[in-house]
């Protein structure tokens, strides 16, 4: 079983919890996720299954879109509602205009300090492990990009927002920093991921829906169509002979539809067999082979061999 599946992650589960449940449902060991969500968060969690786990490297820098609620009046040690209050609690009433002005300070490229309860490593140790052992981690600010930040509504001590951010941006830190700017403290009360890269919430399925589909034998219908993956890469369709050469790690000539450095190689309409990189002209080498023989256990093809020119 090979494919990409979008799960609507429920609150209370870690991303790894979801992976484990999907492994059990599909009776499939090779399952990974793209882009960790905190236990508090819900929404788009793309899973790569079978040979397509090798596509994970292409999504390391994918932008993400979030919707959520910030509660003002006190901060927490985790920067979200799962943590313990830190500092004093204040009664506040925020206004939409006030927060919309504040939001302008956080748009664009900014410095942001990751939360103490995060996976950021300090001398090889994740920060959250130090924080749990009451050893406050010293985390350095990093450059992040908040491409869009819109305050949608404000009522009493809460504000709802929508943000589109580059990879590496912590929405918990955004809420915490906005509270500091307001002088009253704040934390992220809830968060929902609406998109990651090309994957959107309307494509997502619950764990319960997946279990039902597996029992009915309709799981394949839930997978994202392979030709919609990595939409910036053009698709090339090859015949069986060319597919055999590609799976053996050979360089082949492919139809040159664009000047793209990389292309997705298909056998038929749905079988994504490789991501190929241009060597010169129309000659491509499949550095990443997705299934088939001749690649070794890790899916990486061996070095370029003598170019062949199969019919395509």
Structure in a nutshell:
With 312 residues, this protein is an alpha+beta fold.
Instruction: Predict the CATH topology of the largest domain.
Output: Pseudouridine synthase
In total, how many domains does the architecture comprise? 3
CATH architecture identity of the largest domain: 2-Layer Sandwich
Which runs of at least 5 residues are low in confidence (pLDDT < 50)? 293-312
Cα distance, first to last residue? 27 Å
Question: What proportion strand?
Answer: 25-35%
- Let me know the average pLDDT: 87
Computed over alpha carbons, the radius of gyration is: 23 Å
- What is the helix/strand order? EHEEEEEHEEEHEEHEEHEHEEEE
For this structure, what is the CATH homologous superfamily of the largest domain? Pseudouridine synthase
CATH class of the largest domain: Alpha Beta
What global shape is seen? elongated
Describe the model.
- By secondary structure, the protein is of the alpha+beta class.
- It has three domains: 3-61 and 198-224, Pseudouridine synthase, CATH 3.30.2350; 64-192, Pseudouridine synthase, CATH 3.30.2350; 227-289, Archaeosine Trna-guanine Transglycosylase, Chain: A, domain 4, CATH 2.30.130.
- 18% of the residues lie in helices and 33% in strands.
- It contains six helices and 18 strands.
- It has helices at residues 15-26, 96-103, 127-132, 171-182, 207-216, 240-247; strands spanning 3-9, 31-33, 42-49, 64-72, 75-76, 85-86, 108-112, 121-122, 125-126, 142-155, 158-165, 186-196, 199-200, 235-238, 252-253, 262-267, 271-280, 283-289.
- The strands form four sheets. Strands 1, 2, 3, 4, 7, 10, 11, 12 and 13 form a nine-stranded mixed beta sheet that branches. A five-stranded mixed beta sheet has the order 14-16-17-18-15. Strands 5-6 form a two-stranded antiparallel sheet.
- Helix 1 packs parallel to helix 5.
- The longest helix has 12 residues, at 15-26.
- The radius of gyration is 23 Å and the shape is elongated.
- The model is unreliable at 293-312 (pLDDT under 50).
């Amino acid at each position: 079983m090979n494919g990409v599946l979008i799960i609507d992650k429920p609150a209370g589960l870690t991303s790894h919890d979801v992976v484990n449940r999907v492994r059990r449902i599909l009776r499939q060991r090779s399952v990974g996720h793209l882009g960790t969500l905190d236990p508090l968060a819900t929404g788009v969690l793309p899973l790569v299954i079978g040979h397509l786990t090798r596509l994970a490297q292409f999504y390391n820098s994918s932008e993400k879109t979030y919707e959520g609620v910030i509660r003002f009046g006190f901060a927490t040690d985790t920067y979200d509602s799962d943590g313990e209050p830190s500092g004093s609690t204040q009664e506040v009433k925020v206004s939409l205009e006030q927060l919309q002005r504040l939001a302008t300070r956080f748009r664009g490229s900014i410095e942001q300090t990751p939360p103490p309860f995060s996976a950021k490593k300090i001398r090889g140790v994740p920060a959250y492990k130090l924080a749990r052992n009451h050893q406050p981690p010293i985390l350095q600010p990093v450059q992040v990009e908040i491409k869009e930040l819109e305050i949608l509504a404000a009522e009493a001590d809460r504000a709802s927002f929508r943000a589109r951010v580059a990879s590496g941006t912590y929405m918990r830190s955004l809420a915490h920093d906005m509270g500091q700017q307001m002088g009253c403290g704040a934390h992220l009360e809830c968060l929902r991921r609406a998109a990651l890269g090309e994957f959107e919430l309307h494509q997502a399925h619950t764990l319960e829906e997946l279990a039902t589909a597996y029992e009915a034998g309709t799981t394949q219908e839930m997978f994202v169509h392979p030709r919609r993956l990595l939409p910036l890469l053009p698709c090339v369709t090859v015949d069986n002979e060319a597919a055999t050469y590609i799976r053996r790690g050979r360089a082949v000539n492919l139809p040159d539809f664009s000047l793209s450095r990389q292309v997705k190689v298909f056998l038929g309409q749905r079988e994504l067999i490789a991501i190929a990189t241009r060597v010169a002209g129309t000659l491509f080498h499949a550095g990443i082979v997705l299934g088939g023989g001749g690649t070794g256990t890790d899916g990486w093809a061996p070095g370029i061999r003598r170019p062949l020119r199969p019919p395509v």
